[in-house]
Amino acid sequence: MAEVALSHVKKVYPGGFEAVKDFTLDIKDGEFVVLVGASGCGKSTTLRMVAGLEEITSGEISIDGKVVNNVHPKDRDIAMVFQNYALYPHMSVYKNMAFALKLRKLPRDEIDRRVREAAEVLGVTQLLDRKPKQLSGGQRQRVAVGRAIVREPKAFLFDEPLSNLDAKLRVVTRGELKKLHHRLKTTTIYVTHDQEEAMTLGDRVVVMANGVIQQEASPFEVYQNPANRFVASFIGMPPMNFFEGEIAQEMGELVFIEKTIAGSPGQTIRVAHHHRSALESRIGAPTTLGIRPEFFSEAQFGDANELAAKDGRLYRMNVDVVEPLGAQMDASCSSDGNEHIVARIPAHTHLPLGSTASFAVETDRVAYFEPGEFGKNLVAGIAPPTEASTREPVTA
C-alpha cells in the first residue's frame, strides 16, 4: 500500500486542448477515492496519467513518496482494471490471473498460491479452468479484479469497471468491491460517471468538470454541502431543484423572491435564521435557491395562499406526473417560475394529477448559490442550530 499524490498536474493535448487543469490531490495510504464527473471531464485522463499510460504536460505525480513522472507503467507497482476487462480470450481464467506474475518470473508455487487465494476471495475458484467467453459479464469483471489482486500492488486503479454490467449486477458487484477493499485495505483510485457508485464506494469523492476539481470531500459532505451549483446538480438523484430569483427584505425578514418565467416577482420563501448573516449582503442581487426533492413535504391543512403569506415556507405547484417508488413517490410539478420541479414524498400522499398542491419547504436545509452553472454555494457548511426534530413548525 502507498500514498498517491498529484501536485499541479496538467494535461494539454496537441492543438491546445486542456483535458486536466492544475489537478492537486493527496490520497492517503489505504484510502478509496472516487473521481466522478460527466464524460469528458478529465477523470479517466487523470487516472491514466497516474498509471503512466498518458504523459503529463506539467506537474508531479508520486507513489509511495517516489516521483513517477518518468517511470514506465510496469515499474510503478500499480494494477489497473479496465472497463472492457482486457482478458486474453485464448487463456484460461487461471492463466489470465497468473500472466503478470509469470512475466515477473515469480516461482511457480508462489504464483499458484496468489492465484488461488485471489480466486477464493472473489468466489471464482470453480472458474479457473474456463475461458473468458464461457463467463458472464460479472464473472469476467471478477477475473479482471483478481488479475489485479494477485500482483499485490501499492495501488489499484479502476476505470469505469462496472459500466458494462446490467443494473442489478452493478449493485451486487459494487458491494463486492467495497467488501474487498475493507479486506485488502489497498489504496484505490476509482473512476466513474455514476454518482451513485461514487457515493456508495468512496471514502472520499472528487467531483470534476472541465478538467477541474469542483469539490473533494466525504460522500456525506458533498451531498449535504455542495461547493457550487454544478456539484449540487450532479450529486443526487433526482437532482436538486433550482429556482432563480433574488434576496429581499420584507417586514424585517430576509426572504427569497422567485422570478417567474415571465420575469415578474413570484412566490416568496422565508430565509432560515441561520442563513441570514450569509445572505444579508446579497439583498437585491440575483441568487439561485436550491431545494432537494426530499426537502419538500405536502401541506395537508389550511388555505394555501393564506399559509404561504403568513409562514413563508410553503410553495404552490401544479402536479403533472406522479411516479410511485415503493415507500416513496416522485411528484413532477411545475409553477409560474419553474416548469421542472421534483418533490419526493411518502407514497401514501394523495396527489391527484392536474391538481395544485402546497408543499412545505424545509428552509433550514436548502442552499443558496451565486448565479451561473458553477455559482458558489453561499451557505455551505452553515448547519442548522437544532436537530430536524426541533425545526420551526409550519403554523396555520
What does this structure look like?
The protein is of the alpha+beta class and 396 residues long. The protein has helices at residues 43-51, 93-103, 108-122, 137-149, 167-184, 195-201, 219-224, 229-234, 276-279, 304-311; strands at 4-12, 18-27, 32-36, 58-63, 66-67, 78-81, 155-159, 187-192, 204-209, 212-217, 241-250, 253-259, 265-270, 286-291, 296-298, 314-325, 328-334, 341-346, 356-361, 367-369. A hairpin with a 6-residue loop joins strand 17 and strand 18. Helix 2 crosses helix 3 (108-122), helix 2 packs parallel to helix 4 and helix 3 (108-122) packs across helix 4 (137-149). The protein is elongated, with a radius of gyration of 25 Å. It starts with a strand and ends in a 27-residue tail after the last strand.
Topology summary:
Blueprint: E1 4-12, E2 18-27, E3 32-36, H1 43-51, E4 58-63, E5 66-67, E6 78-81, H2 93-103, H3 108-122, H4 137-149, E7 155-159, H5 167-184, E8 187-192, H6 195-201, E9 204-209, E10 212-217, H7 219-224, H8 229-234, E11 241-250, E12 253-259, E13 265-270, H9 276-279, E14 286-291, E15 296-298, H10 304-311, E16 314-325, E17 328-334, E18 341-346, E19 356-361, E20 367-369
Parallel strand pairs: 3-8, 3-9, 6-7, 7-8
Antiparallel strand pairs: 1-2, 1-4, 4-5, 9-10, 11-12, 11-14, 12-13, 14-20, 15-19, 16-17, 16-19, 17-18
Helix pairs in contact: 2-3, 2-4, 3-4
Based on CA atoms alone, the radius of gyration comes out at 25 Å
Unreliable runs? none
Using DSSP, what is the number of strands? 20
Largest sheet: 6 strands, mixed
Helix run count: 10
Short description:
The protein is of the alpha+beta class and 396 residues long.
